[in-house]
From TrEMBL:
Domain Reverse transcriptase: 1-93
Taxonomic source organism: Henosepilachna vigintioctopunctata
Protein name: Reverse transcriptase domain-containing protein
Amino acid sequence: MFQKLDWSEKGIKKNGRCLSPRFADDIVLLSHDATDLQERINELNIASTEIGLEMNTAKTKMMVNPFCTREQMEVDGSPLEIAAFYTYLGQIVPGDGDITPEIMQRTRTT
């Protein structure tokens, strides 16, 4: 499915390559621009539907950092929840850049 999506020039670049981290059924869309992000959400939703998958809007979240505007994103008219943090592959990723919760979790598990 991702080969069909032409995202080679969309999102945030690192070392000349656009990032869209994904693992199994988890994907993170990164963007400098709200319009680009909404377009990619729409493209992902359409591509998913075409192969019989459905985006779970109850589990689909968005996060903004202090340097961007808080524009509402949606999937098929359903607004996405704005989360203060998310957990990706077991690591807490905070919207505000504060890594204290991640450090606290790691010290509790060791």
